[in-house]
Write a structure and sequence with these properties.
Elements: H1 3-21, H2 27-60, H3 72-84, H4 93-96, H5 104-117, H6 143-152, H7 170-182, H8 196-204, H9 225-238
Helix pairs in contact: 1-2, 3-9, 5-6, 7-8, 7-9
Length: about 240
């Protein structure tokens, strides 16, 4: 039993003993004392339980979606590796700004560099028409890569806009990566959500170990830069 709970129990016993030791106390007074003490103890135990539960989740979270606890070493390695394969110009986690959301143009560059380094078999889609009106918003050095990524059909767009400044979501990042690794689309029909089989495949490959993005509530949230770095780093290790 935790020390705080034990202390509360001892305090309760002492108060009960004191109440019976005082000979002139009335039944009404005793009932009031016991009710008040019991109420205070229940509140304290509830507070302690919530605190312990929160700490347990925190301890189990080796790399939560919004934290970098216990995963900084892997992120450092990931950023260094991505720098080596020219997927990013940054070589440290600090410069890479791991806690920021990743833009679509930045993600496009990283996935393309990963595919080329890993020598994955990719092919241009004859049915794709790549004509965008908003690439002036993208980083200039990434624009040619956006054209190439578009021709491979990796990213979706809308109304002739690539939306380079928008964020790729958690599950979108997984979908693109699994398509690259498998070289094909997973079954997208007859499932509750088209990304379902991509997530299952990513779990089979241990890409999602210790990551909270498996939860449906994280599906459409913007992907953090550290998340994409970790996913790509783990995928690079699969290619060895």
């Amino acid at each position: 039993m935790p020390m705080k709970k034990l202390s509360l129990l001892l305090s309760f016993c002492i108060l009960v003993w004191f109440s019976f030791a005082v000979t002139n106390i009335t039944d009404e007074d005793l009932e009031w004392i016991l009710t008040e003490v019991n109420g205070e103890i229940e509140k304290e135990i509830k507070i302690i339980s919530i605190s312990e539960e929160t700490q347990s989740v925190k301890d189990d979270n080796t790399c939560g979606i919004d934290t970098k606890e216990k995963c900084e070493d892997e992120i450092d390695l990931a950023v260094k590796k991505l720098n080596e394969i020219w997927a990013t110009i940054f070589s440290t986690s600090k410069d890479f700004m791991v806690s920021k959301n990743i833009r679509r143009d930045e993600a496009a560059k990283m996935f393309l560099k990963f595919a080329k380094w890993a020598k994955l078999e990719v092919s241009k889609k004859s049915w794709v028409s790549c004509s965008f009106s908003d690439l002036g918003k993208a980083w200039k050095d990434i624009v040619p890569m956006i054209w190439e990524v578009c021709e491979y059909g990796w990213f979706k767009w809308s109304k002739w806009k690539f939306m380079p400044l928008d964020n790729i979501t958690n599950w979108q990042a997984v979908i693109v990566l699994v398509r690259l690794i498998d070289g094909k689309k997973e079954e997208e029909e007859w499932v509750s959500h088209y990304a379902e089989n991509y997530m299952k495949k990513a779990e089979e490959l241990w890409l999602l170990k210790d990551l909270w993005i498996k939860d449906i509530s994280m599906r459409d949230k913007p992907a953090k830069r550290w998340l994409v770095a970790k996913l790509l780093y783990r995928s690079l290790n699969l290619q060895k």
